[in-house]
Amino acid sequence: MEFTLTEEILKQIVYAMEDQRHRFAVDRTTGALIRTDSEEGEGWTVSELVPLPNWQPIDGFQLMERFVARLHNPVFRDRLREALASGRGVFRKFKDILREEREIERLWFAFKERELRQVVLRWYNEQRELAGLRRLEEEPIEEEYEELLETDFAIGSLAEEHLDELWRLDQSAFEEAFPGADPRNLRRLYHRRRRRLPGPLEEGSLTRSATTPDGRFAGFYWAVERKDPLFECCNLHLVQLAVRRRFRGLGLGTLLLKNAAETARDHGYGRITARLDGASLCFREKLEAQGFSEVSARLSLDPTGFDG
């Protein structure tokens, strides 16, 4: 393998791999793509051309399966799984579902590009080894999509037009934390806690929302000021951080949390506190990953199951 695998050649190879109508090979010296099933391929010897990495429809299907297995968004993960199990027209159904949500589609394209790049790099290294050349270092696989998310979601002050959506999401997120609880008791508890606080748009609150490029409300965080008599400073208490179901599993919650920390720092607050109840305790690891630490603990025991 004598040619250098430039970015442009790599992209051409990826494009040709997915072309199921024609057959291609690469000029061993220049890296130029040659159609071997046309007049263009006549006159070339086997030693001058290198076949492209083998890529069949089954490989594309397995790539989609891996993407769905890694997708944390519950809404689209389940729908994409159904599409993959539906039989005929799988590829079309898969693409149609992705087109419904730009952010999910962009994650797919990013995942697909990264995976196909790895296939080409492995193939190129195999050809180099056959030619007695040293392997090139393969690209590290990035697991985070934060840079992609920042181009897809805008985080800013809550618009009044999104206030009703915030209240609906706030209540549903609150209720999710107490599965199995009596709905009437849960509603009373929710309203009792919220009555004690300034509203999201009132003085004493810091509220930021995440919106898509076309202006749709995707999630928010709401925090309120609290005096801390122990440290004699003003803290920011995180009342709620929630993401709509169709946008979950994309890292948007982490993006909102980081924005809350940066905003608190820029506004001069001493600390950020958060209360975790019920099922929301599962977010503890994510909070700790951002630097939160435990300052108190509340434990519960059902005495009816206590056997001494």
Characteristics of this structure?
single chain; 308 residues; alpha+beta; Aminopeptidase; 3 domains; five-stranded mixed beta sheet; three-stranded antiparallel beta sheet; 10 helices; 8 strands; 15% strand
Task: Explain the overall architecture.
The chain has helices at residues 7-17, 57-70, 74-84, 90-99, 102-130, 146-152, 163-176, 183-195, 252-266, 284-289; strands at residues 24-27, 33-35, 49-51, 154-157, 205-211, 217-228, 233-243, 272-274. It has 308 residues and is of the alpha+beta class. It folds into 3 domains: 7-51, no CATH class; 57-143, no CATH class; 153-293, Gcn5-related N-acetyltransferase (GNAT) (Aminopeptidase, 3-Layer(aba) Sandwich). Strands 4-5-6-7-8 form a 5-stranded mixed β-sheet, sandwiched between helices. Strands 2-1-3 form a 3-stranded antiparallel β-sheet, covered by helices on one side. Helix 1 (7-17) packs across helix 5 (102-130).
Describe the global form.
elongated
Q: Radius of gyration, Cα only, in angstroms?
A: 26 Å
Biggest sheet strand line-up: 4-5-6-7-8
The main sheet comes to: 5 strands, mixed
Q: What is the arithmetic mean of pLDDT?
A: 88
SSE string, helices as H and strands as E: HEEEHHHHHEHHEEEHEH
Q: Percent of residues in helical segments?
A: 40-55%
Distance between the first and last residues' Cα: 74 Å
- Structure classification: alpha+beta
CATH C-level name of the largest domain: Alpha Beta
CATH superfamily of the largest domain: Gcn5-related N-acetyltransferase (GNAT)
Tell me the β content: 15-25%
Tally of DSSP β-strands: 8
- What's the helix count? 10
Give the CATH architecture of the largest domain. Answer: 3-Layer(aba) Sandwich
CATH topology grouping of the largest domain = Aminopeptidase
User: Spans of 5+ residues with little confidence (pLDDT < 50)?
Assistant: none
How many domain regions? 3
